[in-house]
Amino acid sequence: MSLLAAEPLRALFDYTAARVGPRADVVGDGHPVVVYPGLGAGALTTAHLRRYLKDSGFTVHDWGGGVNTGPEGSFDEWLLRLEERLERLHARHQRKVSLIGWSLGGVYARELAKRRPEMVRQVITLATPFAALAQGNHAGTVFKLLNHDKAQLEPHVEARIRECPPVPTTSIYSRSDGIVSWRGCLERRTLRSESVEVHASHLGIVSHPQVLRIIADRLAQPEGSWQPHAMARSR
């Protein structure tokens, strides 16, 4: 509970560190990137991340869904709206799109990559407990409160969420996360998937200087030449 109570203050420190930290290096190739916010968050909470990635040389888009209050009704039917936006961005840019998701937003990014892998360049999640979405962490409780115990995921859907997308995938997590279980954020390391540990709060991971640099490094890799990060877990 101490980590949970400290989350707002730690997030403030993470954001302040990002504001006074070094400026972004231009490493991008201009390909499109979509950022999906966490539960209860919206465009304002990911603004610093999107600005950093824009300055790094990427074409960055907000998810376009306002405040993320969780899926409504059937999860698969609800995802169709996000899939349609992905299709439009892919058609507009004529390039594969990288997807970045914070917490619950990472679940959306992973599922979209499974549905339309031909349109997705890579997936990066921040503190997303895809392996334990509603168990052993505070995020499950918040999800139920915001959705009035409705639209809960069925067991077979939760099992599907644990599956890794068929595109290069990076899960960034923190053992000192005060909201989700870090163990639920671990992705097995393969030729196209990895987990990278940082020391950040759940609320501040989206603006933490180290996290920003890792994201830019992942996105900067040439398409088709993805390699694990030097800090990735060995298994």
From TrEMBL:
Domain Serine aminopeptidase S33: 33-133
Lineage: superkingdom: Bacteria
Classification via Gene3D superfamilies: alpha/beta hydrolase
Coiled coil spans: none
InterPro entries: AB_hydrolase_fold, Hydrolase_4
Name this polypeptide is given: Serine aminopeptidase S33 domain-containing protein
Lineage: Bacteria, Pseudomonadati, Pseudomonadota, Betaproteobacteria, Burkholderiales
